[in-house]
Design a protein that fits this description.
Rossmann fold; binds S-adenosylmethionine
Amino acid sequence: METFQREMNHNREEFRRTKWAKHREQVTGLFDTVFSKQASVDKIGIIGAGNCDDLDLDHLATRCNSIYLFDIDKESMINGIKNFSESTQCKIQLVEFDVTGLGKVNFEQTLTSMLLNGEGIENVLEYLLKTNEHLSEIIHKEFAEYIGSFDVFATSAIYTQLFYNWAVDTLEKNKHNYEQMELIRIKDGFLDVRDQIVLNLQNLAFKCCTTKGFYITWTDILKMKPEYTQTTNQGINAIFSLASNVGYGAALLAIQDYMGKVDRREFSLCHWLWEFNEDKQYLTIGLLGKMKN
Ligand SMILES: C[S@@+](CC[C@H](N)C(=O)[O-])C[C@H]1O[C@@H](n2cnc3c(N)ncnc32)[C@H](O)[C@@H]1O
């Protein structure tokens, strides 16, 4: 999974950081809104930092004492932070971290060998179900040292990247071992695991904040097409209604769960178009808030 993610991160256009300037401004705006509400900020944590193209770390570093960057792909973070000043880099800690918890149970090797050997569908589904039952406990242990420690905690466009794309890619390579209906059932099993991972992350991201801390998240919600523009111009309700048909399930689940957890008095939501590359634009939702008591 780490290799899959590293290849995705490395496979980026030259000058992407420049191309993402507007997206980065929107992300910085979310942090600035929180800074305007927080008298002092000691520690910031960001999960999914990757190449750091969406982060203005020089700006964030002027507002805090330390920044913890987390990602499954440490190599990209090592390269990403080279774009920032030395004084900023001195405030940064890089943490190689897999938010799924799957690495702790040898999941990648086990599932890959099951699919490669054409393991019976019932055994594959049973394995996914069993793994799912333990994920919450595993990942809570992984996060334990960070609970309650960040004044601002954030996740960067991570929900749509978690587990599922890698799992479907692995299944695709071994699809000759299964019937069409079996492939559908395995993918459904993957979706259950993915949903559990999204909910675990959401839960823990709020818990990583101090009692007064804010959790910021931004996520791609759908891939834009010219015919969606009229609807998306109508505002957030129209966007959610469109996204419920053509949007990303992981993002919708995370947003819905966020809304249920947040104190509505301190909450804000915005949206923008993320010019990802020449061919792709994603409608992106940004959220910030504190967990309700
Ligand atoms: C779309 S990128 C976010 C953009 C990124 N901040 C940048 O500017 O390059 C999502 C990030 O989530 C990371 N990611 C994916 N799965 C992960 C996992 N299981 N644990 C931790 N990070 C993960 C990827 O490595 C990637 O860097």
